[in-house]
Amino acid sequence: MTHPSDHRAYFFKIDTTIKKIRNALQKQFNETGFDLTVDQWVLIDHLYRNPGISQNVLADLTTKDAPTVTRMIDLLCKKGLTERRMAEDDRRKFLIFLTPEGQAKYDEVLPTVVDIRRKGWGDLSEEDYRHFVRIMDSIYNNISE
After folding, report:
1. Could you give all domains of the chain from N- to C-terminal order, each with its CATH number?
2. How many other CB atoms sit within 10 Å of the CB of residue 102?
């Protein structure tokens, strides 16, 4: 007996959906003149919710490798949106914070992100969302084992 997922390219469907969302966000960012990439927004979003985390934790949260996150943080620092502060308990470790300009950028960009999310979600219900999260969590956990 074959498994239902054997013949269904669910990964392709997930991947193409994510790319569609990212492209829509980037297009909107460009048209609005935000001077951000979607990946930079993801870092800013995580830093807004987790001020003062290390680059390694940020890499884990965003599923990006540490060198990529370092380069992205360097760019965001040059733009004046983030800053590195030495950890008080370990002088070898830096913690990342949004600057006031970075917090203002978050506030400026968030409504556009929310608008794209709402557009994508359309008329799906709260129950649809619960099923979606359950299924995605299950796939994630199955792969993580």
Report:
1. 35-118 (1.10.10.10)
2. 22
Estimate to the nearest angstrom the gap between the alpha carbon of 67 and the chain centroid: 17
The first and second tokens of residue 77, run together, are 């620092």
Q: Which residue has the higher pLDDT, 25 or 11?
A: 25
Sign of the CA dihedral 124, 129, 131, 132?
Answer: positive
Q: CA-CA distances (angstroms) from residue 128 to 5, 18, 22, 40, 90?
A: 20, 18, 21, 29, 45
**pLDDT tens digit sequence for 41-83:** 999 999 999 999 999 999 999 999 999 999 999 999 999 999 9
pTM of the complete model: 0.87
Element housing 98 (H / E): strand 94-98
**C-alpha span between 116 and 120 (Å, rounded):** 6
Can you name the residues that pair with 85 across neighbouring β-strands?
95
**Residue found under tokens 């600057």:** 99
Residues 6 or more apart whose CB falls under 8 angstroms from that of 87 comprise: 54, 93, 94, 95
Cβ proximity of 73 and 43 under 8 Å: yes
